[in-house]
Each structure stands twice: as structure tokens, then as C-alpha cells.
Fold this sequence. Notes:
The structure holds 2 protein chains of 2 kinds.
Chain A: E1 4-7, E2 10-13, E3 19-25, E4 32-38, E5 44-51, E6 57-58, E7 67-73, E8 76-81, E9 90-97, E10 107-109, E11 113-117
Parallel strand pairs in A: 2-11
Antiparallel strand pairs in A: 1-3, 3-8, 4-5, 4-9, 5-6, 7-8, 9-10, 9-11
Chain B: E1 3-5, E2 10-14, E3 19-21, E4 24-26, E5 32-39, E6 46-52, E7 59-61, E8 64-69, E9 74-79, E10 88-96, E11 105-106, E12 110-115
Amino acid sequence: GAVVSQHPSRVICKSGTSVKIECRSLDFQATTMFWYRQFPKQSLMLMATSNEGSKATYEQGVEKDKFLINHASLTLSTLTVTSAHPEDSSFYICSAKETSGGPSGELFFGEGSRLTVL
Amino acid sequence: AQKVTQAQTEISVVEKEDVTLDCVYETRDTTYYLFWYKQPPSGELVFLIRRNSFDEQNEISGRYSWNFQKSTSSFNFTITASQVVDSAVYFCALKPIYSGNTPLVFGKGTRLSVIA
């Protein structure tokens, strides 16, 4: 099946620094990618929808200046957590929608990135 | 609006017991996909099944089986003869089929612990 790769899988950073997480579709094009956040022992909450070549659409309550999303190509979306604080520590997962599949195109998930802010 | 409810927060069973994880959903869409994912402690989501709303046939895959009841908006997941390796969090999810670029909506998950 199709593969979505996230990098890094784990990152530890100091408070105040910025961290970039990459989400790549390895063998298909993805016009749309989704970013989810998962707190410990909780469900996956959609943060934003990333569209290639345009601005991301953020869910209510998600700070767009805090979580910068860039979808510069059909195979790459990046999430940058700016000026990270301990409360940003979480598990971030992306999913990519196969462009060729139309509205019902298959969704594939990355392996997730665990961010720990000290 | 879409909503997925997994009422069981945590379940604990002894190895070899059968266990059923419940999933109830709400949607105004007439066509949609339902999913089950497994999330082991390592964190990645492991795809288990996708079922579209047209197909109410139950499905069996090895020790896993799924019971889709459109009349009750339920899509329950049964593991027979559970094993320790089945211990994980299981998520049920929903996605409209023809509503553009919509993401999956997840339930809150059920944490399954299988004790040896």
C-alpha cells in the first residue's frame, strides 16, 4: 500500500525553540494532507487541513501562528511548532489523501512524531 | 456533522477470551466510510478495515470480525481468542465518501489490555 513518512519520529527540544515536522507521501501525490494532534490517552484531534499551493485551513481553537503549515509540493507538508512550550508536547500525526482517488481517495497515515518540550 | 462514539474507554480481558469493541456513529451523509485502526504503544496507526456504507455484509479476517448494522449506526469489532499482542488502543473512524477533502473523524478510542 501507499506509504506516508513522517520525520522526525521523536524530537526533544527546549522551550522557546521551533520544531519542524515533515510529512511525505512516498509513492503518490497528495493535494491534501491532514495534521492531527494526540494528547496522552486521548483521541486524535484534527488540527488543520493542508492544501498544496494554498493556505492551510485550521480547526477552531488551533493557533495558526503557533502551528505553521506549509504544503509546498504534492508530496510534502510541514508542520512547524513555533516557540514551543511544554504544553505543546504531544504526538502529531499526518495523513495524506491520494489525489488521484478524487473526493473518496484513500487516506494514509504517517507513523507519527512525538514532540517533547522541556 | 459527524460523530463517532466509543463508549468503552478501557477493556481488560484474559488471553483467549473473545472481546467486542463497540462503535456508534452519527452522520447526515448517506454515503460514508467506516474504519477501524489499531494504535500500539509505539504510536503508529495500523489500518485494520475500511467499510463503505453500501456494504452491510459482515467481514471476517482471521481472528478479527466486524459487524456493521446500519439500522443502529453501529460498526462493532470483535477479536476472538484474544492475544497479548492485541493490547492496544483501537479507534473507530468515519469519513463521508463524496464530501470533498474531508478528514477522518475519530472516536475517543478503546484501550484494550489482554492479560496473559
